[in-house]
Write a structure and sequence with these properties.
Largest sheet: 7 strands, mixed
Number of strands: 15
Distance between the termini: 75 Å
Low-confidence stretches: 502-511
CATH superfamily of the largest domain: Glycoside hydrolase, family 3, N-terminal domain
Mean pLDDT: 92
Shape: globular
Helix content: 40-55%
Structural class: alpha/beta
Strand order of the largest sheet: 11-10-12-13-14-9-15
Radius of gyration: 23 Å
Strand content: 5-15%
Number of domains: 2
Number of helices: 18
CATH topology of the largest domain: TIM Barrel
Length: about 500
């Protein structure tokens, strides 16, 4: 094989990669690879300190390749990268689905798009178009717009239109749907049951809406869906990518993998093997997430792709087609960003649009005359129950109601406990003061449920604040924010303190 062909294949292979990297400035190898054909990179929390710093980072990348795709995994909810240090100032999908105002969803997404575009981001790995039909799902939950396919579909479409009107390409994920699973694909391969007819009536509805809304990219989920392909995960399945997504749904944009090092595919097929199989199945870009983030990993993928073409395992025409789609998205991004205004000075409190939306998503359920428990009569004691971390959510991202409540009600005290920690002393600390119990997905954690029951037995006047999916409503007064973002916590704190400025939340009686 000639050196010219080898060089061309290496350039094509680099074009389809979207690697992550460590640092708040691009490392030399990334800059060098951009000159050699690298098509894009992906940013995570480790790359972000301030918006000005991100703008400088992307300017450095663009100096090497003006049309480089700069992706980010920013859902504007519990999963946030651009605001990972403080928590998102915008509510997540579930809160927007509860409000069920597509114009509001579009406005929040447009607000995010303008911010991302102004600092040089061109592709957002969002929205999650999953239907969270399994309340025990450990990785989706509040990242979905809800459990009703119709609700998820209309808000997926609204979110796509909003962020793309803000100058950033949307990427609907995790195709063909990660909602009906109890397994996290970061750790193992989930299997999605149901017949093809059931998939058409649920999982696929939001993705059809995303395609109809003009979504620029779709991210595959590392999911086994026997009704579609009994042997291969979606990321590696030509039946699912070519047959379903391309031919049936009519999607012509970029198909990108979920992080290729995730164990759902890498355990069985290997890091590079999964990437090659994904490209052969019809994927156009390979995302390398947070666990393989150096030049060695990128080189391993590039060399494996070239070797697969030489060996006849991956048609060169397929690789060229994938690189061409990467180029089309890059061209779209350049045009979309052209009209984006210069970023104004950042609001220190984050997005005003986001906070207004979060306020609209708060719901209160009260029994009898318990509604008089709000607002709180004095500075409370807050007990926050910390579940095991959802691996998709950054460990550095803060959450909780105690901090914003202390800002509004000085003298507020707080403690955070996990599984195995005794709750008795924490409850006793609230003697003579209001008690606030903060939970996340109470229905999924037996230890948390037992601790809350114990607390409410001792203090029936305790107020429960649910920051996750409110599948289990308990206590005389229950406040649901439908997300654990900074904006959602602030909205709950305002309500508890009697300072809410949104329209009155829904009060419902317990049966």
């Amino acid at each position: 094989m000639s050196s010219a062909r080898t060089g061309n294949l290496a350039s094509l292979a680099a074009a389809v990669l979207q690697p992550g990297f460590v640092g708040t400035t691009p490392p030399p190898w990334v800059c060098r690879w951009l000159g050699d054909g690298l098509g894009g990179v992906v940013l995570f929390a480790r790359n972000i300190v301030t918006l000005d710093q991100v703008a400088a980072l992307t300017a450095t990348l663009r100096a090497e390749r003006p049309d480089v795709i700069v992706a980010i995994d920013e859902e504007a909810g519990d999963v946030t990268r651009i605001e990972s240090g403080r928590g998102s100032s915008r509510p997540g999908n579930f809160a927007l689905g509860v409000v069920d105002d597509p114009e509001l969803t579009s406005e929040v997404a447009r607000d995010l798009g303008r911010e991302l575009a102004s600092v040089g981001v061109t592709l957002d790995y969002a929205p999650s178009a999953d239907v969270n039909s399994n309340p025990n799902n450990p990785v989706i939950g509040v990242r979905a717009f809800g459990d009703d396919p119709a609700v998820v579909a209309r808000h997926t479409a609204a979110w796509v239109q909003g962020i793309q009107s803000g100058g950033v390409a949307a990427c609907a994920k995790h195709f063909p749907g990660h909602g009906d699973t109890r397994v996290d694909s970061h750790l193992a391969l989930p299997s999605i049951g149901g017949t093809r007819a059931q998939l058409d009536a649920a999982e696929l509805v939001p993705f059809r809406a995303a395609v109809a809304a003009g979504v620029q990219a779709v991210m595959t989920g590392h999911l086994l869906v026997p009704a579609l392909d009994p042997e291969l995960p979606a990321t590696l399945s030509s039946r699912i990518i070519g047959g379903l997504l391309r031919e049936e749904l009519g999607f012509t944009g970029l198909v990108v993998t979920d992080a290729i090092e995730m164990r759902a595919v890498s355990d069985r097929y290997g890091f590079a093997g999964a990437a090659v199989r994904a490209l052969a199945a019809g994927v156009d870009a390979v995302c390398v997430g947070g666990e393989r983030d150096d030049e060695e990993a990128a080189r391993e993928l590039r060399d494996a792709i070239v070797a697969a073409v030489v060996a006849g395992e991956l048609p060169e025409e397929r690789l060229a087609e994938a690189a061409e789609r990467v180029g089309r998205l890059a061209a779209w991004s350049v045009a979309a960003r052209a009209g984006v205004p210069t970023r104004p000075d950042a609001d220190q409190d984050g997005s005003p649009v986001g906070l207004a939306a979060a306020r609209r998503a708060v719901r209160v359920t009260a029994s009898g005359d318990a509604g008089t428990a709000l607002p709180l009569a004095a500075a409370p004691h807050v007990v926050e129950f910390a579940p095991p971390r959802n691996i998709a959510i950054g460990a550095e991202t803060p959450w909780g109601v105690a901090a914003p409540l202390a800002d509004l009600l000085p003298g507020t005290t707080a403690v955070r406990i996990g599984a195995g920690d005794p709750a008795t002393d924490s409850i006793a600390s609230a003697a003579g003061r209001p008690l606030v119990l903060v939970v996340r997905d109470l229905h999924r954690h037996d230890w948390m449920r037992a601790a809350v029951e114990q607390a409410l037995a001792a203090r029936p006047d305790g107020v429960v604040v649910e920051l996750g999916v409110p599948a289990l409503v308990t206590g005389r007064v229950h406040v649901a924010t439908h997300g654990a973002t900074r904006s959602s916590a602030r909205a709950a704190a305002e309500l508890l303190a009697g300072l809410e400025r949104a329209s009155a939340p829904l009060l419902a009686g317990l049966g």
